[in-house]
Design a protein that fits this description.
Blueprint lengths: L2 H8 L14 H24 L6 H26 L11
Helix pairs in contact: 2-3
Amino acid sequence: MTMDDETNRDRGRLRLQRPTFRGSSVGWGISAVVWLSCVVSVVVRMATGDGGAAPVDVLILVALLVATAVCVTGTVSTIRHPRPAPPAVDE
């Protein structure tokens, strides 16, 4: 089997790829801290509330945790795989 056979066979197939996170790791880190602080405020509000955890509060908490996880993943990904620098040009 040659490379051309593999290329032709794979054409038209959907391939699962890891998401790419663009931007700076600092931006992702700041976003992670913001979402995490929102998580803490929701948890504190749920703990001090008299009625217990309302379903809406639980949904908000889950959404904030997902956003925090995405931002932490973006931070780690951009640190491990930084954007390539533009080519140097001598003038």
